[in-house]
Batch of 2 targets.
Target 1
Amino acid sequence: MKRTALFIIAVFSIAAFSPPLNGQGKNLEDSKPYKQLMPVALSILEGNYSPKLKDNISPEAYLINNNTYESLFEVLGNPEKRKTFIEDKNTVVEFSQIIMPDDKTTAYVIFETKSENITNWHTIFFEIGKNKKWQVVSWHKS
């Protein structure tokens, strides 16, 4: 049991403190996909949901917000539900990571946000959709 816990801690530490990498170990922080994906995710999270961003969300996109599973479009379209998802204006991104397979058609963006005493983790799965744009497929906030 102790070995398993130690292994999990070690893997998490490596993932948490390493730069964004692709399958070949190349840093992705300055890459075009990273510069495209982070603004989309942060715009949605800050409540700057515009018709232009609609193309960056898959029609099947879903959100797991703490313990609820819902359509991302439904949450963004409902002011009451959106309040539980959208972050405070004073929120700061403390950590971000992108993981992308070599085919470069999918990506995971992971980031941590902090505001006052609240810390949230976001894991977002993107893929290039039929419209040839990066689209959010799933979003998990905890």
Note: The radius of gyration is 16 Å.
Target 2
Amino acid sequence: MMRGDAEFVGYVTTLAELDWSGMDVWLVGGATSEDKIRDIDLLITGEYAPVRIKSNILQARELGPFDPFYTLQDVGTWWQPGDEPASYMCGLPNDRGHRRAKARTGAWQDELFWTKCWLPSKKQEAEPQHYGKPIQLIQNGEQIYF
């Protein structure tokens, strides 16, 4: 799958059907390049509604190969490879990547597990040519990309 192909567009179109009112969804990670990808990394910003955020993240994961997280900070919406390193807090519906994984460092608050995220990630440091500037998919609940 690649950004812009039929499979990718189908996933994003389905994702936009969730209730994103008051929120923005950004495409980040490998899908910002023209490379083939296995998952679609999403950054969610905007209205802090923890129950709905958790629900949308879990539903997005069920809809397709989405890897979404939420943040109250906007650094992930503008940061791109080559910028100064940055960190921010991201909220997830669980404290580990999969059930056998070691728990992440962080704390539970309002239905979300908050942990520190870094830019660039280890993958971005190793292969910066495979990453580009974030792309906004949804603005205040409305699909604006595709």
Note: The two ends are 16 Å apart (CA to CA).
